[in-house]
Amino acid sequence: MTSTAPIIDARGVWKRFGGLAVLKGVDLSVAERELVFVIGPSGSGKSTFLRCLNRLEEPDDGSIQVDGIELLSPKTDINAARRRIGMVFQSFNLYPHMTARQNVMLALRKVLGQNKDQAATVAARALDRVGLAERMDHYPAQLSGGQQQRVAIARAIALEPRVMLFDEPTSALDPELVGGVLNVMRELRQDGMTMVVVSHEMAFAKAAADRVVFMADGQKLEEGPPAQIFEAPQHERTRAFIRQIDRH
Amino acid sequence: MEDFLFAFLNWDIVTQAWPILWRGFAYTLALSAMTVPLGLAGGVALALLATSGPWWVRLLAAGWTDFFRAIPPLVLLVFLYAGLPFAGIDVGAWGAVALGFLLNTGSYYGEVLRAGIESVPRGQMEAARSTGLTRGQALAHVVLPQAVRNVLPDLVSNTLEVVKLTSIASVVALPELLFQARQAQNATYNATPIVAAAIAYFLLLWPLVRLVSRLENRAMAGR
Amino acid sequence: MDGLNNFIFSFFNLKVMAQYLPLVAQGLALTVVLALLIVVCGLALGLLLAVLRSFGIRPLNWLIIFTVDVFRALPPLVIIVLLFFGLPAAGMSVSGFAATWLSLTLVLMAFAEEIFWAGITAVPKGQWEAARSTGLTFLQTLRMVVLPQALRITIPPLTNRTIAITKGTALGSVVGVAEILGAAQSAMSFSANPSPLTLGAIAYLVLFVPVVALGRWIETRFAWKR
């Protein structure tokens, strides 16, 4: 882990909205095959930071390298870079006018330039991986929230990204649907996918994360293995946050 | 009653005027086939500028749209047809109609499509961009199809208005249905050709009116 | 430079403009009167038809729907021409002003009826049932419970439609009404210069830009509650 270069290397990332600084120089490096969990109170900037990692938010300052490519350089083809960075959103953001399979196929055809048959095969395989082979021809409105989120994961992994970003992937789901999505994420991890996850699923973090990062007020306050962060947090803010989470 | 029938529903006159009216009807169809795509193209361009340009482009697009929605289309047409030649620019009747409809109808379609694009959640664009699609690809494949669906009643209703509006081309002597009916009326001293033209318009557009009405009721009930 | 001078001489000829300003101003006044008459009569008739339709008398409703469809399908200019050039053939003659007023009133009536009716049907059935269960009559329920809710959601589409139809007053120029366009056109032929037309366009902008902006504002203002 120490010998290879990190696959994500973000340094001094600043982001302001108007006069308000939401990120105040955040650093994060993620090694290949690592699963990093980012936690923190709402308004801590964790989602904004995640969205900077594929430049959906434009950072005001800092540098972000993903797989050796500097994202913030004007010379970088951001669209080519993004296909190596999969993203899963809290609200799924499936295209409602396309079936599950068409959702997955769109970028395969338009970004990777695959023909229709190729894309259909790759999409079918990706949907099979998330356990939705039978629902391929359903429209999003005909799927449960959990199934929709799994389609969204399939849409991202079909492009064979080097990194997957998850922005609160289960917080819009009814409790009984969360398990299916977490199972898919667990399998991805077993297959060696590098993942950065912003989420409140603490049990999942304890079981699956390699490292937990705690953010507050636009800064990274502490990080470490889950056991350390959850059992023996160093920082007072972290302790307060963990106590509050545990009460639920 | 007989006088009325003689003046308004005179079958002899209908058969006499039939060839002229038929040519006018075909001309109206051709005019519509030209003006609807022209207006749509202008509308898409305006809507894209009004939703994704920098702030001054948006402002300009909004001003442009309001300007051409405030000017009655007939005023625009007369200006292009009868005014411009004074400055040495003669675009002719066809050119005046094409340009006038591009400006007027384009503004209306633009306003409808702008509302449609704004009704598509931002996450759709973000999801598409996160998979590596360019802004143009995301607009074409993800945002615009949803935008069009969301404002379909308004789009169809606007199209109905465009077809009706082609009747003002009669003012610049393009031989469409209304113009031909007026010619026939002048030749026969009888109102029947105009009544026949009205019936033809009604038969052509009634299905569209029914469709709009159904779509609008569904949209209103869904609120 | 010559081209620019020519352009200014043609379209912004202040001398011609000053000369024909009174004529175009009279046109503006006539347009305002015509527009107000159309708006008041058209909206009132449209509301009347929508209320009549809510009684649910089958044959009457068919008649209303058909009438509305006719005036939504026919181009306003066709109706104006039909009334102005057609009626004299039956021994009845109407002025250009009356033909324009009547035609556009009927068109606005048709569109307004459709919008009012859609608004009435959009009010949930439970509102009717709740009001009737407290002993209100049909008309009381319609007037005090249903219409206030219906009118609110009809305001944005109604505003836009009213603006579009009121702009149709320019069609009156075809049948000799000296409203803005008519006045500007005759001034143009007197002076052999299109500057009066520019003046006319400005008059329309003065009249309608505020209304269009108001419509846009109303649309956003009433949209957020959807």
From TrEMBL, chain A:
<dbReference type="GO" id="GO:0005886">
    <property type="term" value="C:plasma membrane"/>
</dbReference>
<dbReference type="Pfam" id="PF00005">
    <property type="entry name" value="ABC_tran"/>
</dbReference>
<dbReference type="InterPro" id="IPR030679">
    <property type="entry name" value="ABC_ATPase_HisP-typ"/>
</dbReference>
<dbReference type="InterPro" id="IPR003593">
    <property type="entry name" value="AAA+_ATPase"/>
</dbReference>
<dbReference type="InterPro" id="IPR003439">
    <property type="entry name" value="ABC_transporter-like_ATP-bd"/>
</dbReference>
<dbReference type="InterPro" id="IPR027417">
    <property type="entry name" value="P-loop_NTPase"/>
</dbReference>
<dbReference type="GO" id="GO:0005524">
    <property type="term" value="F:ATP binding"/>
</dbReference>
<keyword id="KW-0029">Amino-acid transport</keyword>
<keyword id="KW-0813">Transport</keyword>
<keyword id="KW-1003">Cell membrane</keyword>
<dbReference type="GO" id="GO:0016887">
    <property type="term" value="F:ATP hydrolysis activity"/>
</dbReference>
<dbReference type="GO" id="GO:0015424">
    <property type="term" value="F:ABC-type amino acid transporter activity"/>
</dbReference>
<comment type="similarity">
    <text>Belongs to the ABC transporter superfamily.</text>
</comment>
<dbReference type="InterPro" id="IPR017871">
    <property type="entry name" value="ABC_transporter-like_CS"/>
</dbReference>
<keyword id="KW-0472">Membrane</keyword>
From TrEMBL, chain B:
<keyword id="KW-0813">Transport</keyword>
<keyword id="KW-0029">Amino-acid transport</keyword>
<dbReference type="InterPro" id="IPR035906">
    <property type="entry name" value="MetI-like_sf"/>
</dbReference>
<keyword id="KW-0812">Transmembrane</keyword>
<feature type="transmembrane region" description="Helical">
    <location>
        <begin position="194"/>
        <end position="213"/>
    </location>
</feature>
<feature type="transmembrane region" description="Helical">
    <location>
        <begin position="70"/>
        <end position="103"/>
    </location>
</feature>
<protein>
    <submittedName>
        <fullName>Amino acid ABC transporter permease</fullName>
    </submittedName>
</protein>
<dbReference type="Pfam" id="PF00528">
    <property type="entry name" value="BPD_transp_1"/>
</dbReference>
<keyword id="KW-0472">Membrane</keyword>
<dbReference type="GO" id="GO:0043190">
    <property type="term" value="C:ATP-binding cassette (ABC) transporter complex"/>
</dbReference>
<dbReference type="GO" id="GO:0006865">
    <property type="term" value="P:amino acid transport"/>
</dbReference>
<feature type="transmembrane region" description="Helical">
    <location>
        <begin position="20"/>
        <end position="49"/>
    </location>
</feature>
<dbReference type="GO" id="GO:0022857">
    <property type="term" value="F:transmembrane transporter activity"/>
</dbReference>
<keyword id="KW-1133">Transmembrane helix</keyword>
<feature type="domain" description="ABC transmembrane type-1">
    <location>
        <begin position="25"/>
        <end position="213"/>
    </location>
</feature>
Automatic annotation (TrEMBL), chain C:
<dbReference type="InterPro" id="IPR043429">
    <property type="entry name" value="ArtM/GltK/GlnP/TcyL/YhdX-like"/>
</dbReference>
<protein>
    <submittedName>
        <fullName>Amino acid ABC transporter permease</fullName>
    </submittedName>
</protein>
<keyword id="KW-0029">Amino-acid transport</keyword>
<keyword id="KW-1133">Transmembrane helix</keyword>
<keyword id="KW-0472">Membrane</keyword>
<dbReference type="InterPro" id="IPR000515">
    <property type="entry name" value="MetI-like"/>
</dbReference>
<feature type="transmembrane region" description="Helical">
    <location>
        <begin position="197"/>
        <end position="218"/>
    </location>
</feature>
<dbReference type="GO" id="GO:0006865">
    <property type="term" value="P:amino acid transport"/>
</dbReference>
<comment type="similarity">
    <text>Belongs to the binding-protein-dependent transport system permease family. HisMQ subfamily.</text>
</comment>
<feature type="transmembrane region" description="Helical">
    <location>
        <begin position="99"/>
        <end position="123"/>
    </location>
</feature>
<feature type="transmembrane region" description="Helical">
    <location>
        <begin position="170"/>
        <end position="191"/>
    </location>
</feature>
<feature type="transmembrane region" description="Helical">
    <location>
        <begin position="20"/>
        <end position="50"/>
    </location>
</feature>
<dbReference type="GO" id="GO:0022857">
    <property type="term" value="F:transmembrane transporter activity"/>
</dbReference>
<keyword id="KW-0813">Transport</keyword>
<dbReference type="Pfam" id="PF00528">
    <property type="entry name" value="BPD_transp_1"/>
</dbReference>
